[in-house]
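Quick one from the shared queue. A colleague (R.T.) flagged Cytochrome P450 as missing a structural entry in our internal table.

Convert sequence to structure tokens.
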Amino acid sequence: RRLPPGSLGLPIIGQSISFLHAMRENTAEQWLQNRIRKYGPIWKMSLFGKPTVFLSGQAANKFIYTCDCSILVNQKPLSVRRICGDRNILELSGLEHKRVRGALVSFLKPEVLRQYVRKMDERIRKHFEMHWHGKQKVSAMPLMKILTFNIMSSLIIGIEGGAKRDVLVELFQQLIKGALSVPINFPFTRFSRSLQASRKIRMIIMDLIHERRAAQKQQPAFPQQDLITGLLSLRNEDFLVALSDEEIADNAITIMIAGHDTISVLLTLLIRLLANDQAVYAGIAQEQEEVAKSKASGEFLTWDDLARMKYTWRVALECLRMTPPVFNSFRKVLKDFEYEGYVIPKGWQVTWAACMTHMDESLFPDPTKFDPNHFEKKIPPYSLVAFGGGARICPGYEFARLETLITIHHLVNKFTWKLCCPGINFSRDPMPTFKDGLEIEIKPKIPVEVN
Ligand code: HEM
């Protein structure tokens, strides 16, 4: 019974400090690569207080994503559980996970999302009118966070604007800062502030649940109005409510976080890419101008228009391949198992990083080159894992596709831009973050349409 090669380092600390430092310096890929060179594709270390085995490659992805949940279960830091609640989807496994995921997917599936294209388009146009029009310089990352938060707020919890949304923006910002922190609840720590914000958000969401339920008793609601209304209307095969109020609140909070932070990173990376790569910019501009020309002035985009934005989506996928917003994930080992001749013991954790598979030249020829043609043909399964895979694959994939395409459509048709600091790079905290927010100089391309 052989353990994988590698070192567990100092007790408790292990390699955590060195790994977090590499994340902040944006050298985490090299950090992993150095160890793969030294030990091979499977090796051990100690991360965040736990013995950890790192696996890499397409076969390892398939193994992890399809592994029986009696062997590997989702593992999130304790801080995430305390902040998002015990009943959030990330904490559940087996039948419980299937039930809650089924309820969330009933809202996030393409047949339902096609009804939101117009609503998203309306919000995105308004965003550009309010925050970009008339400006010469903007900070792309904070603006993309505002945009994606407002869309989530409207479609997930049904709050369109006003004082309640302003309070929620502040509270979610406070919550996210402590979501990955040492879970010690002392006053003034990141974790304690995050926990306070989470309690206040939960109270607001519980009030919304009660309001919606009372309104539904008066008059049946359109279930696709927002996620909360949808989940309240959902019944299981025995005609009982599919999710408890606690489950609705925990999962609404989780989806708000999972959805807005990831898409805002992707959009910011696309803004940087399009400023730096003229050929890609020209390809996207041509595709988006063609879509715009086929529409009457002020006419909203439709699902079919988005299906025509094939090149733009290939560019977004290539961006996710080169820089996956979610760097690595963890699973907890529930019982000893063997993998490639090594034993991986119960109580340890398994981690993997999408970027390691994304740089495999047998899957993506010339992998360090940014080339949207990598996605011209169907790619092998478990090779692009920016959205995960298997039973836990990101249920927000389509949502992210719609929001990204509509935003890029308006951005490219309304503005040209250049970076204020062309050489700027990001650090990971753990998502890519630009110190200056990615400042850009913008110029209007055509007058902003007002509907
Ligand atoms: C560019 C955008 C996005 C990226 C890159 C992304 C990435 C991911 C990844 C890698 C996972 C799997 C993590 C694991 O296996 O441990 C995941 C799961 C998840 N994502 Fe996303 N995501 C994005 C957008 C969204 C959106 C828009 C939503 C919601 C509207 C969402 C909701 C979720 C949820 C609820 C899970 C947990 C699924 C489960 O455990 O069954 N994500 N996401």
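The domain at 55-444 is CATH 1.10.630.10 (Cytochrome p450).
Residues 245-276 form the longest helix (32 residues).
Added to the table.
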